Amino acid sequence: MHVVRRSPDDEVMTGNESRRVETVRAARLHKWAAVGWFGAVTATVLNGILVGYGAIWFQLFGDVADVDDYAVSAGGYGAAALVLALAVPAIVAHGRPKWLVWPTGMSAALLGLLALGSAHSTHAGQGVTPMNTVWDGIGGVLWAPWTWVLVTLGIHGLGRIMASLVRASHGQNPSS
User: Fold this and answer.
1) Which residues contact 150 (CB under 8 A, 6 or more apart)?
2) Is the pLDDT at 11 greater than 60, yes or no?
3) Is the pLDDT of residue 135 over 80?
4) Do residues 56 and 121 lie in contact, with contact meaning Cβ atoms separated by under 8 Å?
5) Cα 126 versus chain centre, distance
6) Strand, coil or helix: what is 133?
7) For residue 54, which of 79, 73, 68 has the smallest C-alpha distance?
8) CB within 8 Å of 97: residues ≥ 6 apart
9) What gap in Å lies between CA 156 and CA 148, rounded to an integer?
10) Around Cβ 139, how many Cβ atoms within 10 Å?
């Protein structure tokens, strides 16, 4: 049997002090979670722009962008837009950081419009057999691990929101 001896100088936490310590720990956790959300959303936006715009802009030997490049661009912009669209319900369902909902939604909408513009440019060169496709752009965005975190949390968030709506429609407390 192990006996712990306390000296009179040892501090013993009261209930209130213990709650304050837990509150501080929770606040730190929420700050780190907000940093993680912000980092994943920002990285996805930048990755979508890099793949989407980079496919059109980066040409070697004086070449101009062709149907292949616009297809890759549409895939990159579209994949990033879809991941960010899934991130919005994830942020809403998980409750933090609420301020990130609007920038994420606006980024998804902007990248979606850019994807439509690039997809429209692919129709100009019909009849050409493309070497690269939309899937190359999608893969360029989805290779990153943070996108899969956002997709997973987005699907979980949609499930939580749907369950809450079902409980509310049946007259149950949505927060239970």
Assistant:
1) 40, 41, 44, 83, 84, 86, 87, 90
2) no
3) yes
4) no
5) 34
6) coil
7) 73
8) 33, 34, 37, 38, 91
9) 12
10) 15
Distance CA 33, CA 50 (A): 25
Please write the tens of the pLDDT for every residue from 42-76. Answer: 999 999 999 999 888 887 777 777 788 888 999 99
Q: pTM for the full model?
A: 0.77
- 96: its two tokens: 């933090």
CB 83 within 8 A of CB 151: yes
Cβ proximity of 56 and 73 under 8 Å: yes
Mean pLDDT within 9-37: 65
Cα gap 31→93, rounded to integer Å: 17
Domain ranges of the chain: 41-169
Q: Report the pLDDT value the prediction gives residue 171, as an integer from 0 to 100.
A: 75
Give the CA distances from residue 71 to residues 13, 131, 135, 138, 165, in Å, rounded to whole numbers and listed in that order: 63, 10, 8, 10, 38
Between 18-32, 48-62, 103-117, the lowest mean confidence (pLDDT) is in: 18-32
Structure tokens at 167: 């409980």
